[in-house]
Amino acid sequence: MSTVSKIMSKALKTVGPEVSVVSAAKKMQTAKIGSLFVKKGKNLIGILTDTDIVRRAVSTNKSLGKLTVEEIMTTPICSIEGSQPVDDAQDMMAELGVRHLAVTQAGEIVGVVSVRDLLRFYKRYAQSKINPEASYSEPKIFQD
Fold first, then answer.
1. What share of the chain is helix, strand, coil (3-state, %, to 5)?
2. Does the predicted TM-score (pTM) go above 0.90?
3. Which helix (H) or strand (E) holds 31?
4. Can you give the residue ranges of every domain in the chain?
5. Could you read off the pLDDT of 95-136 as tens digits, one per residue?
6. Please, what CATH class does the domain formed by 4-129 belong to?
7. Distances in Å between the alpha carbon of 123 and those of 13, 44, 117?
């Protein structure tokens, strides 16, 4: 079975703790990602996720332009060692109720693994087990 380090994203995107939630959300949208690590000086002090923005900011009716990342970020950062099997990341996410895990190597954060990364991995894994002669059709998207 593959390890977490093989499916993680290595390019860590960060944001400062005093940045507005609006600015952070725009950065996430531009990068097409669902999380940003919060960096104060040289230290990562938390993680901001799209879920944090919805549950801790938008739902409060506070001004998103004035609300800072530090006020709504998740801390401490949940992490998994990169040498762990992918199944362990899936189990940990389910148990903790999170969709992003920092990936560590020798105690240092070196990447992030998301539910999306797990879905891609399991899709490739499942397809490798399917009979190559079986036909595969793309899912249909229904619109109103």
1. 40, 25, 35
2. no
3. helix 21-31
4. 4-129
5. 999 999 999 999 999 999 999 999 999 998 887 776 555 555
6. alpha beta
7. 25, 31, 10
